[in-house]
Amino acid sequence: MISPYDMTFPAQMDPAEAAKQKAAEWAAAQVEDGMAVGLGSGTTSALVIQEVGRRVASGLRITAIATSEQSHRQALALGIPITSFAQTPHLDLTIDGADEVQEGTLHLIKGHGGALLREKIVAMASRRLLIAVDPRKLVKALGSVFAVPVEVVPFGWETTATRLREAGFECELRLKDDGQPYITDGQHYILHCDLLKSGQAAEQAAETMKRIVGVVEHGLFLGMASEVVIGGSDGIKILERTIF
Questions:
Q1: Which is nearest to 116 in space by CA: 44, 200, 185?
Q2: What is the mean pLDDT of residues 225-244?
Q3: Interhelix angle for 69-77 vs 43-57, to 10°?
Q4: How far is C-alpha 176 from the geometric centre of its chain's CA atoms?
Q5: How far apart are the first and last CA of the chain?
Q6: What is the b/e burial string over 27-56, where b = at least 16 CB atoms within 10 angstroms of the residue's CB?
Q7: 158-167: long-range contacts at Cβ-Cβ below 8 A with a sequence spacing of 24 or more?
Q8: What is the structure's pLDDT at 243?
Q9: Could you report the per-residue pLDDT of 126-177, keeping only the tens digit for each?
Q10: Would residue 119 show up in a list of annotated catalytic residues for this protein?
């Protein structure tokens, strides 16, 4: 289902940033009093957290769990009450971004911000997963723009990479600007794996990756998004799955 909403951009704002802002505002407006909320990671999620923080300051009563240390710090700075899964095992709503959203299925690639493991844990604990993006994130085929991030144990990561290659995935280690391996909040490494060149469907690739020793989690979020809100110059669009 696609639902248009009125939207105007400030003249001085970049259209892509304006689209993110409008998507974030709509998504944050879905948070209701008394909810337990998952707060995502990335640039659009940061805008969501900012808006949720504004609403909390105005009297909204919620508790939240963040999907990354950065989002956690931002939420605390804005006065958003933070809980834990020990206290709150189930969440009503999680709002997050995505690197790619496949049209029709709403399958996602997530994790290029480095938080895919925590993002998936939070998403799996949520009754509703709402993804907020700008139109650039929509793709016909998953893996068209981004590789699939795969979080791996640092010990023996070279052998894990070899097993991924033997399974059909071209992959490379994610590095920081200084040339050192990028380290996730969970103290793991990330391998970027090429989905399209593997020739495997996303569902098959997900199963293959999870069977490989050394893999902690992958960035394929399949059948998890409840809906996707997209900001654009022609208004807000709400996408729901049409292919199951």
A1: 185
A2: 87
A3: 30
A4: 20
A5: 14
A6: bbebbeeebbbbbbbbebbbbbbbbbbebb
A7: 159/214, 160/191, 160/212, 160/213, 160/214, 160/215, 161/191, 163/212, 163/213, 163/214, 164/191, 164/193, 164/209, 164/212, 164/215, 167/198, 167/208, 167/209, 167/212
A8: 76
A9: 999 999 999 999 999 999 999 999 999 999 999 999 999 999 999 999 999 9
A10: yes
Span 9-51, pLDDT tens digits: 344 567 778 889 999 999 999 999 999 999 999 999 999 999 9
Tokens of 187: 């103290």
Q: Select from 168, 38, 148, 39 the least CA-distant residue to 100.
A: 148
- Condensed to tens digits (0 to 9), the pLDDT of residues 82-111 reads 999 999 999 999 999 999 999 999 999 999
Is residue 242 very low, low, confident or very high in pLDDT (cuts 50, 70, 90)?
confident
Spot the catalytic one: 119, 151, 217, 227.
Answer: 119
pTM attached to this predicted model? 0.91
What separation in angstroms does the CA of 241 have from each of 27, 85, 145, 210?
A: 17, 28, 21, 25
- CB contact set of 193 (below 8 Å; sequence gap of 6+): 147, 148, 149, 150, 164, 169, 170, 171, 209, 218
